[in-house]
Write a structure and sequence with these properties.
Strand content: 15-25%
Number of helices: 7
Distance between the termini: 31 Å
Order of helices and strands: EEHEEEEHEHEEHHEHEH
Structural class: alpha/beta
CATH topology of the largest domain: Alpha/beta knot
Number of domains: 2
Number of strands: 11
Shape: elongated
Helix content: 25-40%
Strand order of the largest sheet: 8-7-6-10-9-11
CATH class of the largest domain: Alpha Beta
């Protein structure tokens, strides 16, 4: 069933679709009477199921059938900080990280970043935010991740209480295996987890030292060296297993 996010709660059990939703549901998907869709209400907790009772050329009148509050979000708020990568790699990371439950994605320029956003950051974020919204709808999430940009590691602003890790390839090369699992085992519902992944060229040793001073724990992501676009997805998948499938919290 198609899912959409609503910015305003319908005032009654019968409501007309917002223009952007109507364009996709009526014009693109060619919805007809009795077709159903799910709508995430502005509280980002409640799902409303409604069916089409009347279709016009460009819009539809919906009848609410039921409401419910599923539990589909990760039990911890999760922020990923991603070193700028070239090409369309940010598109892939945003789409897949959204499907895997990320709450906030921060793209940051580091010493070895090949890409440079500069004054193009607003335009790039606007496009990536659309990708995040579509991925949230497709994966039936209740929230759309927030995207932002930091021009350097020094420009990052993170909650002091956040539990922070940085993926460090030297940890993997040296056979370190337990740091990430230990961090996951200490998480409890409601915590804020932050994971930082460098760009294609990785992070400089001086950057790692700086991050450690900010409270980041260096961790390995297994014995293999992962691409910049693969590492954040590995991290989120491992987090989901630890907190949702393995029931550590």
């Amino acid at each position: 069933m198609q899912r959409y996010f609503l910015d305003n709660r319908p005032q009654s059990d019968r409501f007309e679709l917002p223009d952007d939703v109507a364009h996709h549901f009526v014009t693109v998907l060619r919805a007809k009477e009795d077709d159903m869709a799910e709508f995430v209400l502005p509280d980002r907790k409640t799902i409303m199921v409604a069916k089409v009772v009347n279709v016009t050329d460009k819009n539809a009148i919906m009848q609410v059938l039921e409401s419910y509050q599923p539990q589909v979000e990760l039990p911890v708020e999760t922020t990923l900080i991603i070193g700028l990568s070239k090409g369309d790699k940010p598109d892939l990371v945003v789409q897949k990280a959204t499907e895997l439950g990320v709450s906030h994605l921060i793209f940051v320029e580091t010493a070895w970043s090949v890409a440079h956003w500069g004054n193009k950051s607003d335009k790039k974020l606007a496009r990536l935010q659309k990708i995040a919204k579509g991925a949230s709808e497709q994966s039936h999430r209740l929230k759309i991740p927030m995207l932002s940009y930091a021009e350097s590691l020094d420009a990052l602003s993170l909650p002091e209480a956040a539990i922070k890790v940085v993926a460090w390839e030297e940890s993997a090369k040296q056979g370190e295996k337990s740091a990430l699992a230990h961090v996951f085992s200490e998480l409890t519902p409601g915590d804020h987890f932050v994971g930082l992944i460098g760009p294609e060229g990785g992070l400089k040793a001086t950057e790692l030292t700086h991050l450690e001073q900010l409270g980041f724990t260096p961790v390995g992501l297994g014995p293999r060296i992962l691409r910049a676009e693969t590492a954040p997805l590995y991290l989120l998948s491992a987090l989901s297993f630890a907190l949702e499938l393995n029931e550590l919290v």
